[in-house]
TrEMBL record:
GO terms for molecular function: 4 iron, 4 sulfur cluster binding; hydrogen dehydrogenase (NADP+) activity; metal ion binding. PROSITE patterns: 4FE4S_FER_1, 4FE4S_FER_2. Gene3D superfamilies: 3.30.70.20, NADH-ubiquinone oxidoreductase 51kDa subunit, iron-sulphur binding domain. This is NADP-reducing hydrogenase subunit HndC. It holds the Pfam family Fer4_10. The lineage of its organism: Bacteria, Bacillati, Bacillota, Clostridia, Eubacteriales. Keywords: 4Fe-4S, Electron transport, Iron, Iron-sulfur, Metal-binding, Oxidoreductase, Transport. Its EC number is 1.12.1.3. Residues 59-88, 89-116 form the 4Fe-4S ferredoxin-type domain. It is an enzyme of class 1 (oxidoreductase). InterPro entries: 4Fe4S_Fe-S-bd, 4Fe4S_Fe_S_CS, Nuop51_4Fe4S-bd, Nuop51_4Fe4S-bd_sf, RnfB_subfamily. The keyword Electron transport applies.
Amino acid sequence: MEDIDTLERLCRVIKSSALCGLGQTCPNPIATTLRYFKDEYIAHIKDKRCPAGVCSALLVYTILANKCTGCGACARSCPAGAISGEKKEPHVIDTAKCIKCGACIQKCKFDAIIKA
């Protein structure tokens, strides 16, 4: 993957060209995480997802139609107005409007909303 290759190359160049010991060790944290957590980098860069579920920019909130009762609690709690649906019908989240605050998950008593 080009981005990861670039990071690895930058680590090597900085380490070999730094004029002081501190500068030579500067790329070590990145080189270490690349070595032991490369799959995390690939998930974030290539797949645009966060396996740990902590990078809000990469999260997508989804309502599971088979669990949604259409009670509307999630829609009423959404500050962005991103949730719509008819009463007693499964609701949907407009991902373009969703601000990923998690208010809907807290309000849903049926565990019908997931973030992935």
